[in-house]
Amino acid sequence: MRLVLRRAAKLDLVEAYRWYEEQRPGLGESFRAEVKAVLATLQAHPQLFPRVGPRIRRATTGQFPYGIFYLIDGETIRVLAILHRARDPEIWRSRR
After folding, report:
1. Structural domains of the chain, with CATH
2. Which of helix, strand or coil describes residue 88?
3. pTM of the model
4. What share of the chain in percent tops pLDDT 70?
5. Residues 6+ positions from 94 with CB-CB distance below 8 Å
6. Distance between CA 44 and CA 52 in Å, rounded?
């Protein structure tokens, strides 16, 4: 399946990367690597993660408290948001 990160999700990723790098050099790279691994898993097994809406699913990272919100659209996986779990989870609803 093809994996597409929406612009807003890319911005989420960049923002979180920068924040972690400011906390400790190299931490942003660890965050990005973990997100990349989760994206590879959901690309290989898109049905693996639970639904949080009629069409929306959420994958979670392990070391970092983030959720990756996505939908399956035919042969394409569309990543809508990459959000810290403390943020309002309803943000992804506006990104459909």
Report:
1. 2-95 (3.30.2310.20)
2. coil
3. 0.90
4. 90
5. none
6. 20
> Is residue 78 a contact partner of residue 92, using CB atoms and an 8 Å limit?
no
For residue 89, is pLDDT > 90? Answer: no
**pLDDT tens digits, 46-78:** 999 999 989 999 999 999 999 999 999 999 999
The H or E element spanning position 32 is helix 27-44
Q: Residue 87 and residue 73: Cα distance in Å, rounded?
A: 25
Q: Which long-range contacts (CB under 8 A, 24 or more apart) does 34-40 make?
A: 34/61, 34/62, 34/63, 34/64, 35/61, 35/64, 35/66, 35/68, 35/82, 38/68, 39/3, 39/68, 39/79
Q: Which of 84, 61, 82, 80 is nearest to 70 (CA)?
A: 80
